[in-house]
What we know:
The structure is a homodimer of 210-residue chains.
Chain A (H helix, E strand, L loop, with lengths): L1 H9 L13 H13 L9 E6 L2 H7 L8 H4 L2 E8 L4 H14 L8 H12 L3 H25 L3 E5 L4 H7 L7 E10 L18 H4 E3 L1
Antiparallel strand pairs in A: 1-2, 2-4, 3-4
Helix pairs in contact in A: 1-7, 2-7, 5-6
Amino acid sequence: METTIESLEWRYATKRMTEKKLSDDQLEGILNSIQLTATSNGLQPFTILVVEDEQVKRKIAPVAFNQPQILESSHLLIFAAWTKISPDRIDTYFKQVTEERNLTPNALSDYADRLKKNFGGMTSEAQFQWASKQAYIALGTAMIAAAEAKIDTTPMEGFIPEKIDEIFDFKSQNLGSTALLALGFRDIENDPMASVKKVRRSKENLFIRI
Amino acid sequence: METTIESLEWRYATKRMTEKKLSDDQLEGILNSIQLTATSNGLQPFTILVVEDEQVKRKIAPVAFNQPQILESSHLLIFAAWTKISPDRIDTYFKQVTEERNLTPNALSDYADRLKKNFGGMTSEAQFQWASKQAYIALGTAMIAAAEAKIDTTPMEGFIPEKIDEIFDFKSQNLGSTALLALGFRDIENDPMASVKKVRRSKENLFIRI
């Protein structure tokens, strides 16, 4: 697991980027890692906007406290989690699984019904929080995949979700913005955080062994 | 980023494990990856129980629907997220950062005050959900680190949080169980999921490019 550890050591939440662009292969690699990310029941309950357009970034910046990475990044990912884990969405997923695994049409019906019942009994807010947690697994995966290729990232919670949702009309799509991830390259000269020591709680403090 | 992609391709949510134990180095490597995981503001708002004791696992199994991996795993990680992002916890973290980065004592006071105000304005449930999302980044990191070393994992949401919280007296520590992760080795002969095709939503469906 040396590569993962090295990637985690190398990365940091980059505050300033150089505006250098990712190559197509680099971008697709990161998107592939997100696509492959583990999620509960495999539902992948999110949509991810891949924003390269400068005009769109300029709309986002003011509702994200004008963090410079919004404009200095090569691409900005917007993680939008499902606000409803609807029967439709569950059916669509199980139809795909049934087809790709050559199962009989109703092989997964009971499983799908259990999920529908489970999510049907949750508030919309609880469904969104559940979906957001799955999106955060993908957020972390993307940071590791990027770092392995020496691509920098900035995960951001500092934005006004309602405003982002408005810009992209997320509400009507039963989506809610949950995190941003800037992709790009660190500007060592202008980013004081590029050279500071990484601080982590000690393992004695973080883990309890039983 | 080939290694990350290979790890993601190799892994699956393992349903049956062989009871083979991880080596000390393997376990420490996975814990190191969790320790290094990115979290919002670096707060690492969780405690992780590393359960190897068979008697303790036997207490957990019935409140986790007797999923066989609980007992067949080498170690079971219990991710317990903070239910309160208290001023104390924030101060402890910023004290550590201040010391390790050799900053002047009050260099980060304004930053810490902003966080205290922010979390102080959130409900306990919202604080727990926020902390849980950070724990899910760590959950995903652990799966990637493990897979790189051909160690299997099973992320599990199928358990009764209140019962796990009771077993470990989490409530009095302002913790709440949010996810389990079994670590071990796949039992290919007994796990029908070991050989099925991985299914993922298409990139056209998952990403919107702007």
